[in-house]
Amino acid sequence: LTPLLPHIDHRNRGMRTRLGCLSHKSDSYNDFTAILPDKPNRALKRLSTEEATRWADSFDVLLSHKYGLAAFRAFLKTEFSEENLEFWLACEDFKKTRSAAKLASKAQRIFEEFIDVQAPREVNIDFQTRELTRRNMQEPSLTCFDQAQGKVHSLMEKDSYPRFLRSKIYTDLLSQTQRRLS
């Protein structure tokens, strides 16, 4: 029994370290260098209050805006659920695949990374959708992820998006753009 104690102590120390890191994670951003692509200061100057406000019009408006997408990704990271957005983006990219040779390998990579049980960045979808997608993988096509992508989009739209609009990341970003006007 004694040889196990150092192992348990080591595991607890590691857990304390990880929990310590989590407690420092915040959804507040006063410095937007972490979330805005390109040159953040220039990006913030180009982002108008009107544009940032339009992100609240619809989830798809948010996803279609480069800086909206970046801010939403940063928010999802604070919730440890960025795999949903990454999967959705991977599917959008996959639909643009024109090479039949690349189609199967890209599909397999997406399936293994996001859909398969115990995938490294497994998305939260129901059993039926997972199984339908698995069957679709037998003959991959540009639409093989459509149902899974739709479920993940709906989940983000109904769950994460409203929280994003109430988050400090979004409200701080709006404040920054409004302050610039005054």
From TrEMBL:
Q: Where is the RGS domain?
A: 58-174
Just give the chief location class: membrane
Q: Topology versus the membrane, per the UniProt entry? A: Peripheral membrane protein
**Top-level taxon in the UniProt lineage:** Eukaryota
Q: Which residues cross the membrane?
A: none
Q: InterPro entries recorded for this chain? A: RGS, RGS_RGS8, RGS_sf, RGS_subdom1/3, RGS_subdomain_2
Q: Which UniProt keywords apply?
A: Cell membrane, Cell projection, Membrane, Nucleus, Signal transduction inhibitor
Keyword Zinc in the entry? The reply is no
Kindly give the CDD domains that the UniProt entry links to this protein: RGS_RGS8
Q: What is this protein called?
A: Regulator of G-protein signaling 8
Look up and give the organism this protein is from. Answer: Dromas ardeola
Q: What is the lineage of its organism?
A: Eukaryota, Metazoa, Chordata, Craniata, Vertebrata
